[in-house]
TrEMBL record:
It is a multi-pass membrane protein. It is found in: Cell inner membrane. PANTHER family: SENSOR HISTIDINE KINASE ENVZ, SENSOR PROTEIN CREC. GO terms for cellular component: plasma membrane. Keywords: ATP-binding, Cell inner membrane, Cell membrane, Kinase, Membrane, Nucleotide-binding, Phosphoprotein, Transferase, Transmembrane, Transmembrane helix, Two-component regulatory system. It comes from Roseicyclus marinus. The keyword Kinase applies. Residues 233-432 form the Histidine kinase domain. Its EC number is 2.7.13.3. This is histidine kinase. PROSITE patterns: HAMP (PS50885), HIS_KIN (PS50109). Its main location: membrane. GO terms for molecular function: ATP binding; phosphorelay sensor kinase activity. Pfam families: HAMP, HATPase_c, HisKA.
Length: 432
């Protein structure tokens, strides 16, 4: 049996599911208990009381059928006598009057000459219409003699106290769920590169999970700091000998070998800058209100000044949204640089929605095969067979830097094929 529809209608949040777990047993218990009490207790009580009333009604009916005066007897039995009403005589009761239905059943079963029972016209004094000899009379009796009075009070009390206890339980449940929610918020913020204050609280299991999260966060931060320090130190220390080599080569005569060595030194300096960018990728700037279209336009202008042919597709106005401008600039600059390195033309597209912003960089280069796109996002991955190396080789950190920045923003970076330009398409999606 397929229960997929049940998963679609059930609440997805923790509060909703907890409330459902709380309410379903309470409501089910109320329905079962009230149903059993109404069906057994009140029904049996109504049957017994109606059976006792039948004896009085039958005595009065038999005296009336014999022609004897019954006024004194009716007064003693607290039964009113009136002519039968006009019209069709049928049983009448309210749909929720369950004990009334049992009283009508017993009256029809045990009282001779009964025609109809009216429990609607006067709820306090129902009318029992019967044939006494040659005439039809209406005998009015107190409803208290037919069934227990106010059986609905039980339902009212059950509903009231059920709602009250549900509210009390919800208060306690909310206090238990609040630490879980705080842990989820701290975890989500850490995944986006933000550090918010968090102290474990709540039940023992939640405290254990919170302490484990803090330990994990501390280890990850220490590992990131160590990696950043190592890459920055190595890259910085290599600058000094490279500078001396470059200075020494510049003092030599312009021989072909000297020119080749100078080109190698410049390439090594470019690689060091890439290493530093990768190390700085973990050190994101603070979020500030930023115009994403203006940021993209500036990146396109910078690429155009160095000879790159890149087009910008973006709305005229976008407003300011909360971004880390330096990190996003570094990410998009790497993507645009890769697009212009491996293709002749590139295009940067900005698309805004209510929940996210998407930057798309496309080129007309050879692209990356689908089976190697996951490998291309790894650090130091160089797909020589897939990408054109005629325009200079890299160290394989451009896409890795972009992916790390996207993940630290809580976003994503995906590689596909450009349908219009034929090369690689990179989608950078950041939540707003």
């Amino acid at each position: 049996m397929d229960f997929g529809w049940l998963k679609r209608v059930l609440p997805r949040g923790l509060y909703g599911r907890a409330a459902l777990i709380l309410l379903v047993p309470v409501v089910t218990l109320q329905i079962v208990v009230s149903g059993q009490i109404l069906q057994r207790y009140f029904r049996d009580v109504a049957a017994q009381m109606t059976t006792a009333l039948v004896l009085d009604l039958d005595l009065l009916r038999s005296r009336m059928a014999e022609g004897e005066p019954v006024e004194a007897l009716a007064e003693a039995l607290e039964i009113g006598i009136a002519p039968a009403p006009d019209g069709t005589l049928t049983d009448r009761r309210l749909f929720y009057d369950l004990t009334g239905a049992e009283a009508i059943r017993v009256l029809h079963r045990d009282l001779p000459g009964l025609i109809a029972v009216d429990l609607v016209s006067d709820e306090r004094f129902p009318a029992v219409i019967l044939r006494a000899g040659d005439e039809i009379v209406s005998l009015s009796v107190s409803r208290r003699r037919l069934s227990a009075s106010n059986p609905h009070q039980l339902l009212v009390l059950m509903v009231f106290f059920g709602l009250f206890m549900t509210w009390v339980a919800y208060i306690f449940l909310r206090n238990q769920l609040k630490p879980i929610r705080r842990l989820a918020e701290a975890s989500e913020a850490f995944g986006k590169g933000q550090l918010i204050e968090y102290n474990p609280s709540g039940a023992t299991e939640v405290r254990s999970a919170g302490r484990a999260f803090l330990d994990m966060r501390g280890r990850i931060e220490a590992m990131i700091d160590q990696r950043t320090l190592m890459l920055s130190g190595v890259s910085h220390d290599l600058r000094t000998p490279l500078t001396r080599m470059k200075l020494g080569l510049s003092m030599l005569e312009a021989e072909p070998e000297v020119t080749a060595l100078m080109r190698d030194v410049e390439e090594m300096e470019a690689l060091l800058e890439t290493f530093l960018d990768f190390a700085r990728g973990e050190a994101l700037d603070d979020p500030t209100p930023t115009d994403p279209v203006a940021l993209a336009r500036q990146i396109v202008e910078d690429a155009g000044r160095i000879g790159g042919e890149i087009a910008l597709v973006a709305p005229e106005r976008s407003g300011r949204i909360l971004l880390r401008p330096q990190a996003v600039r570094r990410c998009l600059s790497n993507l645009v640089s890769n697009a212009l390195r491996y293709g002749e033309k590139a295009r940067l597209t900005v698309v805004l929605s209510d929940r996210a912003i998407r930057f798309t960089v496309e080129d007309d280069g050879p692209g990356i095969p689908p089976e190697r796109r996951a490998e291309a996002l790894k650090p130091f991955a160089r797909l020589d067979a897939a990408r054109n190396q005629d325009k200079g080789s890299g160290v394989g950190l451009g896409l890795a830097i972009a992916r790390d920045i996207a993940q630290r923003h809580g976003g994503s970076l995906s590689l596909t094929e450009s349908a219009e330009m034929g090369g690689l398409r990179v989608d950078l999606v950041l939540p707003r």
